[in-house]
Here is the input.
Amino acid sequence: MFLVSVYRVIKFALVNFWRNIWLAIVTTTIMSMSLFVVMVLLGLNLVINQAINSLHEQVDVSVYFKSEITPEVVQEFQTNLQQIPGVKEVVYISKDSALDNFRAKFADNPVILESLDELAENPLGDTLIIQAQSINDYDLVLQVLNSEELSPFIQEKNFQDYNNIINKISEISATINKIGLFLSILFLLIAVLVTFNTIRIAIYTYRNELGIMRLVGASKAFIEWPFFVEGIIYALVSVLVTTVAIYPIAGAAQPFLDKFFGSSTLNLVNYFNTNFFKIVSLQLLGASFISIFSSWLAVRRYIKN
Amino acid sequence: MIEFKNITKKYPPDVFALRDVSFKIAAKEFVSIVGQSGTGKTTLVKLIIAEEKPTKGKILIGDWDITNIKPYELPILRRQIGVVWQDFKLLPKKTVFENVSFALEVCGETPERINRVVPQVLRVVGLADKHYRFPYQLSGGEQQRVVIARALVHKPKILIADEPTGNLDAINTQGIIEILKKINELGTTVILVTHDREIVNGLKKRVITFDAGTVVSDQIEGKYML
Ligand SMILES: Nc1ncnc2c1ncn2[C@@H]1O[C@H](COP(=O)(O)OP(=O)(O)O)[C@@H](O)[C@H]1O
Ligand SMILES: [Mg+2]
Here is the structure.
């Protein structure tokens, strides 16, 4: 008996959907667009966060020791520097491999190579490359490196600071988030209004049926649920549309993102593929919530007991 | 079966549709409610099916006090009371059979029960041979009989007809009255709201007469008086 009712409620809702098919199309379009805007916002956030993270990873401090300092001393520094809180790792590069790197770097510059060959001794010193856990931890590292006791050993230090780029990207990200949030809220509001209106019209279209249902003693649930189910149908269809639309669009956007954020940029299509069920169920949850909420508003307002 | 105790119904802002009305209707009775237009007859019907709530007084159906009925109890009440209105509320795109079965479907009845009950009630109202007609293919009297059939699907203890013949000619009117009498003979309490003098006088049953929202007479074998 319960299943019969469930079946009838769903049938009733599907008939509703067909009866006002143009409204249904408008409603699902708007809802899909809202989902889409939210998805774009989330996608951009993913890409930007990934870009910022990879920049953070590239930040380091290179310490070039004077060439007369022995490897033993440098390695002792390495051990000591490793003790500074917040330091992730300290890499030791010997003067020989530094020279090899140098040669490799200027392989197509004979002038530099020749003048190197003329020197009897390796002019370079050992190098330590220090990476901290996070960007803020470099303050302490630099403070240590700048101290009086260390300066006699150090030829030069180079703090590869990506702070400017990171700040710029963060700024862009904040702006995108602000605009995106505004658009999302706008679209969600429109979606609620449109769905509310569609259900209102469905209720109006069904006013005779509803009157009869009340008169012959149909339960409140049977009277109201078709409209909630209709809302759920809108949610299902819009999630389907959004999911189908997002692949070609993400694919088309990828080259531009790569160009802007560099080649290590998150691949959106791959990301969607690996997180498919999570993304689709979140969309379903969100869309159902919006549509059921709107239907509930309409039912509460336009169906009397 | 039905008891009104000092019922007053005021519509906002200050229309008194009923004033201090009291009466009792016994089970299996056939009662006509008469009175001029605007004297509160339809309001009385709405109070019985709890579509409106009384401003003052108490309403009992059986020994159930429905004065402050809860919304979730409404379906239980309404499945025990069949109602027929003056304007036939049929669904134009459904056949006779579907119009009647709709009432059972929306109450969660099984297809088996629907297929058993619908032909039964259509036979009671004399439409056994018109299951697949659409409303526009029926006369006004036939349409009203479909509405009566629909009101009977839950085998209600009470059938209320509010001016069921208001839009019908004399012959169709007589047909409807015969059906109501038959339903009453089968054991259902029938309340007929009308202002048709001939019907009332021909019935020779109890008549309650309303005027300006009050009962002005209540006779066991009444005549139309006003
Ligand atoms: N929903 C309503 N709101 C305000 N006044 C109403 C409403 N329904 C009926 N009335 C008034 O109550 C009085 C009784 O109406 P009604 O019960 O329909 O009488 P009848 O059925 O005898 O013609 C009339 O004056 C009518 O205008
Ligand atoms: Mg009336």
Remarks:
- Strands of chain B lie at 2-11, 15-25, 30-35, 56-61, 64-65, 81-84, 158-162, 189-194, 206-211, 214-219.
- Chain B has two domains: 1-80+158-168+189-226, 85-155.
